[in-house]
Amino acid sequence: MLQTIRDRAQGWIAWAIVILISIPFALWGIQSYLDIGGEPIAATVNGAEISQRDLDKRVQQARYELRERLGAAYDTAGFDDKTLRSEVLDEMIRDALLFDTTKRLGLRVSDQEVQMQILSERAFLRDGRFDQDAYNRVLQLQGMSPAMFEHQLRQQLAGMQLVRAVGASAFVTASELADYQKLADQKREISFLRFASGDYLDGVSVDDAAIDDYYKTHSNDFQTPEQVKLDYLLLDSTTLASKVSVSDDELSQQYASEKGRFVVPERRQMRHILLTVPKDADEATANGVLEAIKTLRERILGGESFEEVAKESSKDPGSAAKGGDLGTVEKGVMDPAFERVAFDLPVGQLSEPVRTPFGYHLIEVTSVTPAQVQPFEAVKDTLRTEVAKQKTDSLYYDLGERLANIVYESPDSLEPAAEELGLSVQHSDWMSREGGTGIFANPKVMAAAFSDEVLNAGSNSDMIEPDRDQLQAIVLRVADHREASTKPLDAVRDEIVARLKQAGAEAKAAKAADALAKQLREGGDWATLAEKADAPALVGRSDPKVPASVLDAAFKLPAPVAGQASVGTASLDDGDAAVVRVTAVQDGETRMAEKGKPSPDASMLSQLMGRQLYTAMMDDIERRANIERKTTGIEETP
Questions:
Q1: By the 8 A CB rule, do 601 and 591 touch?
Q2: Alpha carbon distance 426, 414 (integer Å)
Q3: Which positions fall inside the PpiC domain (predicted)?
């Protein structure tokens, strides 16, 4: 049968079969090439896609920034991962809307602006100057080409044009400024009574049903996060130093080739007499100073002591008392005009008057130490350190290039690279996405550890250099993996009981505060009902002696009628409750700006109003935009 088909598959019939077969294969191949549907999408904004991978990177960066900002106070249990991902996605959507808006408005950024921003970026500087190698290296570590980075930077600068334009459109009227100052500096006479939640703990009972219900409804609070154990190869220039040796012959060659570095320049012991000329002096005044210093010169040439004349007449506060002595001076220290004369003068000869921006000088050189080359033995240790570092750096770059190639060619094991490069495979402890200590505190490293190709595909990571200023690289692979899980009830029962008792005590304290506030509003006597209350005090909005929540409640209460009081309640940060009583209000004073100077309050208010305008504009743009949030990998974002 197959032979029959082959014999008859000639001419247009054969071509029709080939075409019919080729179409699905071609379409499938194009889809695979373009990765259509291949990469998960977190959201689309007016047709533009935000990838799941980009969202993961931004979430990881947000965690790192939180950890850096909070330090020891950072606690992973205090941050809900779903909420964080949702907030980061919202921020990325806002960024996409901003870029889209600037594009539709036709905002442009010149090549010069982009160039100046790049040249001033600290990450690309070496010794205060732009360094092309540093620029290329930083972009390579971020997986970006110069064209990609410059395009992204151009978008960001265009967005900032819109932000600044909207913000600059806000202004503050005189009446608005006066109202603000009255409110900002307002003081209120308050007193408050605290109800300590700890006093109510013994009256709170917790049953098993409440414990079970709390455990079910707060299961996210008792999560053990997803964790990995890692095998890794660490290439570190500090450990490579022991593998480098430097011979005396190499040091001698280095010394000979760089002998100019070790020349100690000529030094001169000198003294001077200065008569100052004011910066705004006219020609007649300058000539008067010149004649005066010529007179001093004649006195010295006539036999008077240079030292005594300097002490008597020199206007240099640093050297006059020392007879004009300037100590030992090298070239490049003094004013150029002064230096040209001083380094041409023979020893013991008095110069003619020399004019500098400071005035007129008389100079005398008392001794000269000629330039000399430091001997090899004196600089040998310095050379050894430098040559060793050069060789160590060279070895690091050579091994780094080989390491990157080997782990790419053998993606399923670290052993080939370890054997060829003389490295040892090291092993980490369990770590979550938040990372660990040392190199594992770096978000780039942890992002690689939890990336799809390393975590799910089981491949080696690419070679990662976490810190551009440190010659250190790591390649890792996942040795073991634990999914996120909820701790068993027995393990967290005591914690739940403590939480429920505290919540119950706080509720009882708040109830007691509400009851007292009600009595006071109905005419109860404060002095009788609140015997232990603090005495009334006139305080401002940020008085450090009063709890912040009490101040917040006090300044939200209506101004009391003369002879009466406004009463409210407050929940304190430690779980206690308080009854707050306001008996008087004193508005702040209005202040006029100094003539010709902007008012700091007005500037602050205009900036605040500008931010509000910008936020309102972005809210409106977002309402009008076509935004579709996809599954983020943890939840369906709102």
A1: yes
A2: 10
A3: 265-367
Chain centroid to Cα 270, Å, comes to 50
Q: Mean pLDDT throughout 375-386? A: 87
- The DSSP line for 449-471 is HTSIIIIIS-PPPPPB---TTS-
Helical spans, DSSP H, in 315-431: 336-342, 376-409, 415-421
Q: Which amino acid is at 263?
A: V
DSSP letter at 480 equals E
Q: Are 63 and 447 in contact (CB under 8 A)?
A: no
For 4-22, give one letter per residue: b (16+ CB within 10 A) or e.
Answer: eeeeeeeeeeeeeeeeeee
Residues sharing a CB contact under 8 Å with residue 290, sequence separation 6 or more, in sequence order: 353, 355, 360
- The number of beta carbons lying within 10 Å of the beta carbon of residue 91 is 12
Residue 543 CB coordination number (10 Å): 17
Give, rounded to a whole angstrom, the gap between the first and last alpha carbons of the chain: 60
Structural contact between residues 621 and 101, judged by C-beta atoms closer than 8 angstroms: yes
Spatial separation of the C-alpha atoms in residues 228 and 244, rounded to whole Å: 35
Q: What is the pLDDT of residue 421?
A: 92
Reduced to 3 states, what is the DSSP secondary structure of residue 48? strand
In a 3-state reduction of DSSP, which class is residue 110? coil
Strands in 577-586's sheet, in edge-to-edge order, are 537-539, 187-195, 577-586, 566-571
319-352: pLDDT as tens digits: 999 999 999 998 888 899 999 999 999 999 999 9
Cα–Cα distance measured from residue 130 to residue 9, given in angstroms and rounded to the nearest whole number: 68
Question: 111-137, pLDDT tens digit by residue?
Answer: 888 888 888 888 787 777 788 888 887
Helix (H, G, I), strand (E, B) or coil at 567: strand
Residue 14 confidence (pLDDT) above 50: no
Q: Are strands 431-432 and 227-236 parallel, antiparallel or unpaired?
A: antiparallel
Give the chain's mean pLDDT. 84
Q: Which amino acid is at 574?
A: D
* Residues 42, 93 contacting (CB under 8 angstroms): no
Output the CA–CA distances (angstroms, integers) from residue 433 to 61, 458, 477, in the order listed: 11, 17, 14
Question: In the structure encoding, which two tokens stand for residue 46, read together?
Answer: 């007016």
pLDDT-based confidence at 250, cuts 50/70/90? confident
User: pLDDT value at position 355?
Assistant: 94
Does the pTM of the predicted model rise above 0.85? no
Of 286, 291, 362, 359, the C-alpha closest to 324 is 362
Q: Is the pLDDT of residue 280 over 90?
A: no
State the CB neighbour count (10 A cutoff) for residue 633.
12
| Helix (DSSP H) and strand (DSSP E) numbers for the chain | 21, 21
C-alpha closest to that of 473 among 554, 402, 533: 402
